[in-house]
User: Which sequence fits this backbone?
């Protein structure tokens, strides 16, 4: 009895079967259901070298566009409260000694410090405004706007016994202020951006004051007659105008936010303001900041904010405690805290060709800047 079969081709001894297990030659034996034909063993593939990794485990090299798409840029602030405190003390002393005249030089010193300590992509910002510009702008603002308002106040006081005239003068004063405020906001933004640069390229604002005055007056009127319900629409349109007409060199900022997206949150604030003792306002402010930033872009890059209402509340409480505990002397540290807070939760994400940005400086005067300071109509970090 034979227990094996020898392949006539390769000579391999094996159990009876239809074909040779090694070379596949027909043996003429009974078929084995569990055994499948086995082709000739191929030559082993060469091991991959370090220079050419195996395709099964290699990761494709990202293209330049893919790399830029995920790029995240962030602002950094290197200043300190102690350094700013030294500037602040000297500013206070010289402002008192000069009966307030040094105030404009003090303002410029603080702005120069804050700008020079702010960094983006390894380079610092610079502020180019001068104290003389602010002083001349202030004098113009007082002459053109301050003096008429002052005279109206005197006339209103003299004619206090005539109700009709008093009401008419009050409405006239309100109308003038309603026009001056948007004019001041536009002027302050135009001047401030025109005096700020990064990598020797100036920012600019190119919106027309008349257009913003129309937007501001209309928005204020609609907010009044709707008992404040129009306010989120008005605030979004106002913000969009200021951002959408701002430039860095020849690159324009864009804003695509809509007031209706904030309307629901604003209604919640109105309903829960008193039950929450006003604390819900911090939640709304944080939501609004996130929304405004996330709908703001520069070319193909978009801003992104992660600020929350809790963090905004803690910042405000901390600033208040610091201000009271130091009897006001901690104000420089509060300014530094505010700038660092603003930078910490803000990023610019996406591709941005910084090398393609070119200078397109715009002329601007400090009259609107002075009005904004006089009426407290603008945002000011220094």
Assistant:
């Amino acid at each position: 009895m034979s227990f094996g079969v020898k392949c006539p081709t390769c000579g391999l001894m094996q159990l009876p079967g239809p074909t040779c297990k090694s070379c596949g030659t027909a043996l003429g034996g009974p078929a084995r259901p569990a055994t499948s034909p086995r082709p000739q063993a191929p030559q082993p593939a060469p091991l991959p070298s370090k220079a050419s990794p195996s395709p099964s485990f290699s990761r494709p090299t990202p293209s330049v566009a893919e790399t830029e798409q995920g790029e995240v840029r962030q602002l950094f602030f290197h200043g300190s409260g102690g350094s700013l405190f030294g500037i602040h003390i000297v500013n206070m002393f010289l402002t008192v000694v000069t009966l307030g005249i040094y105030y404009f030089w003090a303002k410029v010193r603080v702005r120069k410090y804050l700008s020079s300590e702010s960094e983006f992509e390894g380079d610092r910002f610079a502020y180019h405004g001068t104290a003389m510009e602010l002083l001349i702008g202030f004098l113009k603002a007082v002459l053109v706007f301050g003096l008429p308002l002052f005279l109206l106040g005197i006339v209103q006081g003299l004619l206090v016994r005539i109700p009709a005239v008093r009401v008419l003068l009050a409405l006239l004063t309100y109308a003038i202020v309603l026009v001056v405020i948007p004019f001041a906001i536009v002027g302050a933004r135009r001047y401030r951006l025109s005096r700020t640069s990064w990598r020797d390229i100036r920012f600019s604002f190119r919106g027309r004051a008349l257009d913003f005055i129309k937007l501001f007056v209309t928005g204020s009127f609609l907010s009044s007659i709707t008992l404040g319900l129009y306010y989120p629409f008005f605030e979004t349109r106002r913000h969009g105008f200021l951002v959408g007409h701002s430039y860095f060199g020849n690159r324009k900022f864009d804003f695509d936010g809509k007031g209706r997206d904030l309307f629901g949150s604003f209604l919640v604030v109105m309903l829960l303001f008193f039950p929450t003792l006003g604390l819900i306002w911090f939640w709304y402010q944080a939501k609004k900041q996130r929304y405004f930033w996330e709908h703001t872009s520069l070319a193909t890059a978009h801003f992104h904010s992660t600020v929350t209402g809790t963090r905004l509340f803690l910042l405000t409480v901390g600033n208040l405690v610091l201000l009271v505990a130091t009897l006001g002397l901690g104000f420089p540290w509060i300014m530094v805290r505010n700038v660092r807070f603003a930078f910490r939760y803000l990023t610019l994400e996406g591709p941005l060709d910084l090398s393609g940005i070119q200078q397109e400086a715009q002329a601007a005067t400090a009259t609107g800047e002075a009005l904004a300071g006089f009426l407290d109509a603008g945002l000011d970090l220094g």
Remarks:
- The CA atoms of residues 217 and 325 lie 41 Å apart.
- The chain is about 50% helix and 10% strand.
